[in-house]
Amino acid sequence: MKTIVICSGGLDSVTLAYKVAAERALTRLVSFDYGQRHKKELEYARRCALHLGVPHDVVDITAVGRLLTGSALTSGGPVPEGHYAEDSMRVTVVPNRNAIMLAVAFGVAAAEQADAVAAAVHGGDHFIYPDCRPAFVEAFEAMQRHALEGLARIALYAPFLQLSKADIVSEGARLGVPFAETWSCYQGGAHHCGRCGTCVERREAFHLAAQNDPTSYEDPDYWIEACQQYQATQGQ
After folding, report:
1. pLDDT (tens place) for every residue of the chain, 236 residues total
2. 70 is in an annotated binding site
3. CB–CB of 91/77 below 8 Å?
């Protein structure tokens, strides 16, 4: 199946791109510049496309992003530190982000007669991001059937929907994903900070998957403390 992958340059979406390249016909990577503070992730998406030998498009929706205020990823507020599952991480939600990106990607897919759009939403995102949950994926695909009725029939491929981050690391290792060529940190500094929620989640996932983590973290051990603190609150 001819498949377009929405690729941020993060570990999940790069692993998805390698999975699609191995199992389907990967036709293109589509990335989005929505004014995110960690815009450097787009360079890693470009590298992924180069490695896989497919076109890469960066869609500029910064004008839209400026209106999606309230998120620590776009509005300049501090990025919270700690475990990814903490309630404090909800400030990283960008309203309707996935719905906007998917709508654009489905239009691209229809224009080039692709069969599917692939997105790397996964089980670890369900508690924070409503547009990463199974109900959203099912509803969005149904909506697109109506939006493109008579023009195209495009599937929404989300193979990680029920998987954990550790599962994705294991899958990436199987596929030979160059994990060092992925970017997760919300701070967007010279190195992964090691303290924001997505850094902690990344480091924990490699640990749980029993895989070597090649990432350079400014604080490589903070994840242990963050995980212990989260587990303590869950035991209360």
Report:
1. 999 999 999 999 999 999 999 999 999 999 999 989 889 999 999 999 999 999 999 999 999 988 887 776 777 677 778 886 666 666 767 888 899 999 999 999 999 999 999 999 998 776 678 888 999 999 999 999 999 999 999 999 999 999 999 999 999 999 999 999 999 999 889 999 999 999 999 999 999 999 999 999 999 999 999 999 888 877 64
2. no
3. yes
The reply to whether 175 sits in an annotated binding site is no
Beta bridge partners of 29: 5, 56
Alpha-carbon span 80 to 37, nearest angstrom: 14
Both tokens assigned to 47: 């590298």
SS3 29: strand
Sketch out the chain's domains with CATH numbers: 2-234 (3.40.50.620)
Residue 16 annotated as binding? yes
DSSP summary character for residue 32: E
Contact yes or no for 2/28 (Cβ under 8 A): no
Q: Is 77 annotated as a binding residue?
A: no
Any known ligand binding at 13?
yes
| 31 among annotated binding-site residues | no
Residue 102 marked as a ligand binder: no
196 annotated as a binding-site residue: yes
Q: What is the pTM of this model?
A: 0.94
Residue 184, marked binder = no
